[in-house]
Amino acid sequence: MRYLLCKNPHTFAAGAGLAALLASVGGAWAEGENAFPKISGEIAFEIENDYAFSSDDTAEEFNNLFLKIEPVVKLAFSKELSVNTGLVLEQVQEPAIKGEDRVFDDQGLFVKVLTLDYETGAVHLSGGKMGVNFGTAWDVTPGVYGTDLAAEYEMAENIGLLASYNHDMGAAGSHKLTAQTFFLDTSGLAESAFTRREKTRQVAGGPGNTGDFSSFALSLDGDGFERLPGFGYHIAFVQHTNDTVNSADETRFAIGGRYEFKLPGDIAVQPLVEYVMFDDADGTVNQDRSYVTTALGFTYGNWNAAISGTFKETEAPDGTDTNEEQLQVSAGYQFPIGISVDLGYKRGRNAGVDTDTIGALVTYGYSF
């Protein structure tokens, strides 16, 4: 890639210092499995460089080198009761000039998760700032760019209440039913440090931005089937209340499945498919939207490869359709020290404009 050095060392150093601080606190309070309180967690590090080298719109041709650090910290007061925090350091703004190259620019730190959790047996109760359990392709699709377009329907950063129950049916698998009520976080927890990101205000309205627990979600997840080992499913429904004048409540539905099996030669294959549908998308009456994601991942020892595609269609109230799609291929290797290096290519098409991008991704995970 074209850039090797950081022209914004203060932000880079702040991220590295944050990670080092969080890592150093692990185990500092109490020692032993049954000693409380105690701190545990993990930190995911990513450095990615994307080079959009060809596009029908020359303003889409640029290079972007950026950092992402995601610390997850659990403060356990007992086996059942804990406070869980998820922070994210990433790019939080679009470039000031469309199409300009960026090197670690516009990196900001914010709170993605902050919850009080109680777990005992099959029951999990939680409250605070959380994501909504809707869809999985935005999180688990393999490949450097596998999650990019599906990320549009990730439902992160809501103030919510959650209750889930996990039922183990033996050979028939384990199934978790989750219920949530929530609204979009517009509080001070939605601010970011180092670089200020654009925060949604409650007065802006829109689905879920109501300031009260009027939106809800139901989901069902399952795996562990004796006759179909390696298979898992996800089904979810969301009622997204919208208080905006002359607008509609948005409803969402997701269904997906994934499967893992092995070929001769110890090659693991992971197909995935997910379908997501929006009714009255964005609160616009009679506007519908759908996403279809398909993927095929391969692993062999420390090697991996993936091919995936996400296809998005929006039907406006007047019946006109807008289509967007993204196809990607990638491959990588995880070194014995835990560092992974992946290379990828994607072609995105939006309103008839094709853009080709190549990229490199370096990742590392640390637990404490």
Q: How far do the termini sit from each other?
A: 32 Å
Main sheet? 16 strands, antiparallel, barrel
DSSP E strands, number: 18
Mean pLDDT: 93
Fraction in beta strands: over 45%
Give Rg in angstroms.
21 Å
Count of alpha and pi helical runs: 2
SSE succession? HEEEEEEHEEEEEEEEEEEE
Biggest sheet: strand arrangement: 1-2-3-5-6-7-8-9-10-11-13-14-15-16-17-18
The structure class reads mainly beta
Shape, please? globular
Q: Give the % helix.
A: under 10%
Low-confidence stretches: 1-7
Oligomer: single chain
Record the SSE blueprint.
Blueprint: H1 9-25, E1 38-55, E2 63-76, E3 81-91, E4 102-103, E5 107-120, E6 123-130, H2 137-140, E7 158-168, E8 174-184, E9 215-223, E10 231-240, E11 250-259, E12 261-263, E13 267-279, E14 288-300, E15 303-315, E16 321-334, E17 340-350, E18 353-367
Parallel strand pairs: 2-4
Antiparallel strand pairs: 1-2, 1-18, 2-3, 3-5, 5-6, 6-7, 7-8, 8-9, 9-10, 10-11, 11-13, 12-13, 13-14, 14-15, 15-16, 16-17, 17-18
